[in-house]
Design brief:
This protein is mainly β. It has strands spanning 29-34, 38-45, 50-55, 62-66, 76-83, 91-100, 109-118. The protein is built from no helices and seven strands. A hairpin with an 8-residue loop joins strand 6 and strand 7. It is extended and about 65 Å long.
Length: 147
């Protein structure tokens, strides 16, 4: 069957591919975290890195998890993890993650981190970036409900 065949379902389809040119290690991280809970933020490096964390208050609430260590070379998933005890006061905390040792220079950087510890509600969207694009001259398909 071809994409013009009347028996073809959902054809043709468009598949979007996103390339991260220059690396995907964030320049900074700013998150809201629930009081007494945990929160993870993932990113990918082009090779294995060494990592260290520092916090302005000297607390152990920020850590770095390195994934993908082994004898095969592939992009490595890395993540920040916030684990704060329930006794930690609400407020804003700062720290940094120092990524080094990558053979891809843009992966090696100091990443400022801000954690806003709250007991209020936190809205969280899907992981990664969300972008909606519409071709020039195309008609939008979504129409908000009329009032």
């Amino acid at each position: 069957m071809s994409d013009r065949d009347p028996k073809t379902v959902d054809a043709p389809q468009t598949i979007t591919v996103t390339l991260l040119v220059g690396g995907s290690v964030p320049s900074n991280v700013d998150v809201y975290a629930a009081h007494g809970g945990t929160r993870d933020v993932l990113f990918t490096t082009n090779s294995q890195i060494n990592g260290a964390t520092t916090t302005q208050d000297g607390g152990q609430w920020l850590s770095l998890a390195l994934d993908g260590a082994g004898s095969f070379v592939f992009p490595c998933r890395t993540g920040f993890t916030w684990r704060q005890p329930a006794s930690m006061p609400l407020g804003m905390y700062t720290g940094a993650v120092i990524a080094s040792g990558s053979n891809f220079a843009p992966d090696n950087k100091r990443i400022p981190v801000t954690m806003r510890l709250t007991d209020g509600p936190i809205a969280q969207g899907p992981a990664g970036r969300f972008r909606a694009w519409l071709a020039q001259g195309a008609h939008r398909r979504y129409r908000p409900p009329s009032r």
